[in-house]
Amino acid sequence: MKLHSLVHENFKLDGGAMFGVVPKTLWQRTNPADDDNLIGMATRSLLIDTGDRLILVDTGLGNKQSEKFFGYYKPANRGGLDRKLDELGLTRDDITDVIMTHLHFDHCGGSVVRNEADELVPAFPKARYWTNEKHWHWAVEPNAREKASFLKENFVPLQEHKVLHFVPTPDAGRWLGFPRLQMDFLFVSGHTESQMLPVIRYKGKTLVFMADLLPTSGHVPLPYVMGYDTRPLLTLDEKAEFLNLAADEGYYLFLEHDPVNEIITVKHTEKGVRADRTLTLEEFLEA
Fold first, then answer.
1. Is 213 exposed, middle or buried (0-12, 13-18, 19+ CB in 10 A)?
2. Helix (H, G, I), strand (E, B) or coil at 218
3. Contacts (Cβ under 8 Å, ≥6 apart) of 197
4. pLDDT at 179
5. Residue 172 has what pLDDT?
6. Beta partners for 113?
7. Who contacts 154 (Cβ-Cβ below 8 Å, separation ≥6)?
8. Helix, coil or strand: residue 202
9. What dihedral angle (degrees, nearest 10) is formed by the CA atoms of 261, 247, 211, 254?
């Protein structure tokens, strides 16, 4: 198995929204804000080469929305996926599977593109796209709180083109082994219904793609929960359970939205679980 990290683009979000009830004087120590109270973010994907499959986890913002829409998020350094594929001697046609941790626009916006005829088509023509049925229904019939995050042009065309597939959602417990993609999934529902986090076993180590359970290294303390979360108290419980397990078992946490840190580990302290080591993916592979 080979693993590659890539950033589709950088963008910005409101710092207050990203940290909920936590005062700015605390969160700005790790995530400094600009004059508009916006903090730096990234859309970092994991590219997994299993030998017979090339799997992409999440697809960034994409480019389908209007200039006005993107003006709220100030994207920069775009095109990271194609640069990485070119560096590896690959193209979009080589992607066999796309895992969408959830269907918010900053995680699946690049799953669908407009072709020269202005039609919405899959961005990876030969890939199967994976979500789960519980989250799919949550996204196609969105609640008022999340409606602005679920942009149907980012995912409904996948069903229309018959490339959408569902990972089984466990009825009991929140872990699912999925040998077909040589990984496990952890299901969490505090941020949105049935968000699924890929868990990769690599040479005796466990790497967890954190998506929006832990967007940045600054979100490790339990109360640091996003204002975007639909069930913040559930997020607290899910974070506590997972971070304690991660500290006990020495998990490596792959951060999708942290603009600086790719991977962190966590440890137990007198104040609870806190960030420990910071690593690049290359350092993880060599550890």
1. buried
2. helix
3. 101, 185, 186, 187, 188, 208, 209, 210, 211, 213
4. 84
5. 59
6. 121
7. 62, 64, 103, 105, 108, 109, 111, 112
8. strand
9. 40
- pLDDT at residue 171, as a whole number: 72
Sheet bearing 164-166, strands edge to edge: 2-14, 38-49, 54-57, 97-99, 128-131, 164-166
Q: Parallel, antiparallel, or unpaired for β 175-178 and 164-166?
A: unpaired
186: helix, strand or coil: strand
Q: What is the pLDDT of residue 173?
A: 66
Count how many residues are written for the chain.
287
Which helix (H) or strand (E) is 247 found in, with range? helix 232-249
Query: With 0-12 CB in 10 A as exposed, 13-18 as middle and 19+ as buried, what is 245?
Result: middle
Distance CA 197, CA 100 (A): 9
Contacts of 110 (CB under 8 A, 6+ apart): 8, 59, 60, 61, 62, 63, 81, 123
Q: In whole angstroms, how far apart are CA 264 and each of 2, 39, 43? A: 19, 19, 16
DSSP 76: B
pLDDT in tens, 183-238: 999 999 999 999 999 999 999 999 999 999 999 999 999 999 999 999 999 999 99
CA pseudo-torsion sign 236, 136, 167, 100: negative
Q: Hey, which residues does 209 pair with through a beta bridge?
A: 254
Question: CA 110, CA 22: separation in Å to the nearest integer?
Answer: 31
Q: Is the pTM of the predicted complex or chain greater than 0.90?
A: yes
Low pLDDT (below 50) residues in the chain: none
